[in-house]
Amino acid sequence: MADAHYDVVVIGAGVGGLFAAACLVNAGKSVLLIDDHDRVGGRATSYNVDGFTVNMGAIALEKGGVFERLLNETGVELDVREPDPATVFRVDGKIVNAAKGGLGFLLGGLTKSAAKIGAKFAAAREGDLPEEKLTTKEWLAGFTKNKTVHALFRNFCAALFAANANELPARAFLTYFGVKGAFKRFGFCSRGTIGVWNDLADGIRRRGGEVRLETKAKRIIVEDGVAVGVIIETGDVETTISTRIVISNAGAMATIALAGEAALGADYVARAKRTIRPTTIFNYYLALPKRVVEIPGLITFANTERLCTLGELTATCPETAPEGWHLYVAYSVPLDSMGPVDKQAEIDFAMEELRAEYPAFAEARLLVATPMAGDWPAQRTCAGWDMEQETPVANLWNVGDSVKPYGDGGTQACADTGRTAAEQAITYLSR
């Protein structure tokens, strides 16, 4: 006997799970959203460290598109502040603002092949894309050997996909930048990224959805190819929930473990194990009593091997630090983003690169130096290596960053998977 019944149980209150739940409650469905942590946001959440608001994972939340539209449909305003300029580049110790001229302007000062590279981005918009096996590094090598250009593209890949240019398919890279247009407008939440997720969770509750934190999914019950329930655990108490739909934001591999390999079939399981390629990124939060960088947005480096991005959060959101302090966030990606890493060696290398670019950081307080890796990766799978959202179980869908649309990334992509799964669930429920 089940202890309760819902139209849909959503496992995991990360971005994909939150947006799936939001779309479903907006359609009038009864929804239970659970997460085994004490906060929403999954791997893109926020914490307080010595009075500083630090984020794990995403800090830049995209304006416009499906992300903001779905928030608005749930009665939530996207509470972010846009930096201006949003992104700049640091090349040979100098800041280059390519906001008006775009990538062509930036590359034009580095290589004679800029026009040819730009033409390939234009061709991508018309559907002319490289074959799938070609990596971004291999694709770029066909135009230039310029080390700075290669380092810049490597850091594009690292910052946006938590992967290196020799790991990311060129087809996925060009799909993101050429077809999808990347994200041009974004902002930071003054309460930390979790502020937006808390707003969305509150919107779900206002629409009648239930959000239970510190509640673990133990098993998805599958009978005759259909998910009929979820066994959950809160504290030491197990509860059986019956449902007509299960949506999992736990990642494709975790979904297999929850439903059981027998329920999903040997072919699907083998393909998931062969396809899924988790990636690693390191998050750094540093504090200084003085401003080091006169840039409110994000800086992408062109002369580094691990360090890819730096930004001062307090330039846009002074509330993220105690008075008199400036809070900086940086990211680095190891040269093998999908393999084992030497944590301390990676941290030391990235901090050395940061101090080489900005010597003042030698005096900074290092608040956080954390890898997102292993079972808690930066990306559950590298872009271009995603599984489909549907599973062999008729009413079980995955959402999140192991089932992104091809060549997509970030919170916008995860929100889109939530929307897609919700639409499929609504159709299933209408039968």
UniProtKB/TrEMBL annotation:
Domain of life of the source: Bacteria
InterPro entries according to UniProt: Amino_oxidase (IPR002937), CrtISO-like (IPR045892), FAD/NAD-bd_sf (IPR036188)
One GO-annotated biological process of the protein: carotenoid metabolic process
Domain Amine oxidase: 16-425
GO molecular-function term, one example from the UniProt record: oxidoreductase activity
Family matches, as Pfam families: Amino_oxidase
The protein's name: Predicted amine oxidase
Originating species: Sphingobium indicum BiD32
